[in-house]
Amino acid sequence: MAMPPERRVEVKHVELCKGVNGLDKVVLREVRGCSAEVYLYGGQVTSWKNEHGEELLFVSSKSNFKPPKPIRGGIPICFPQFSNLGPLEQHGFVRNRFWSIDHDPPPFATSTSNKAFVDLILKHSEEDFKIWPHRYEFRLRITLGPGGDLMLTSRIRNMNTDGKPFSFTFAYHTYFAVTDISEVRVEGLETLDYLDNLKNRERFTEQGDAITFESEVDRIYLSTPTKIAILDHERKRTFVLRKDGLPDAVVWNPWDKKAKAMPDFGDEEYKHMLCVEAACVEKPITLKPGEEWRGRQEISAVPSSYCSGQLDPRRALQCG
């Protein structure tokens, strides 16, 4: 008996569809089964799953997918201001703007051999100009690698016609999903100076051999290495964050009291998330008209068990 011809299933690498509340989103898929979702509202990654379908990012169950409120979780983009130190709303305004798909991007330094990526673009509007009087062009490429790595590459250009430079601070405000925050440690930031947002940005030096969590943490680590590891012991998983063009790293967990005070955050959800963010906060970036800045973050998840108890993030990288 003749066997039927083999059916080839075409993988749709990039798909534009509707998300929560009818908002447009782009779904990226790789052949092995990993995926990512990006909302055009905010240019925001809201999901990143491995080949087993496990969610690697945290999004609050109480998150608003209702403009103009920002989405709580995933990877919000903080620009042109991180935090609330300045005239703008907290973390700037691009996280609650509608981005467009960029159909004609200039060449990126990153490889395009991989099919699962999307280019987004955001330009100044008259509304933005009233609160931040500069003309800018923000290009964002989001790539899902063949091994499931997630890369975000930003290119920000000063488009002012009046000859004026502008300065900004920036962060990829990444919410990692963790099993139990009390069983998580962050490595790669030992012995570094940090600004403590819970103590009026007073400067301290990290004393521990790793960062662990027993209460609220809100710190900006300065002059950080290009690789940081987040170890989720209970899940036997290590997140590895690599960054370029972003000298600082923010570490944040609101803990119980602040969690209860946030309307778009569940009372107990602080136990299952941790923000570790590639950022540029201490020394703002200044661009003259026509100049462009680039900043990149790549995150991957590797089984910690491969590392045989070695918690050095450099070993974690070798184990992937």
UniProtKB/TrEMBL annotation:
Molecular function terms, GO-annotated: carbohydrate binding; glucose-6-phosphate 1-epimerase activity
GO cellular component: cytoplasm
Name this polypeptide is given: glucose-6-phosphate 1-epimerase
InterPro entries: Aldose_1/G6P_1-epimerase, G6P_1-epimerase, Gal_mutarotase_sf_dom, GH-type_carb-bd
Alphabetical keyword list: Isomerase
A Pfam family matched in the record: Aldose_epim
Cleavable signal peptide: none
Catalyzed reaction equations: alpha-D-glucose 6-phosphate = beta-D-glucose 6-phosphate
Broadest EC class assigned to this enzyme: isomerase
Family: Belongs to the glucose-6-phosphate 1-epimerase family.
Any one GO biological process: carbohydrate metabolic process
Originating organism: Punica granatum (Pomegranate)
UniProt keyword Kinase present: no
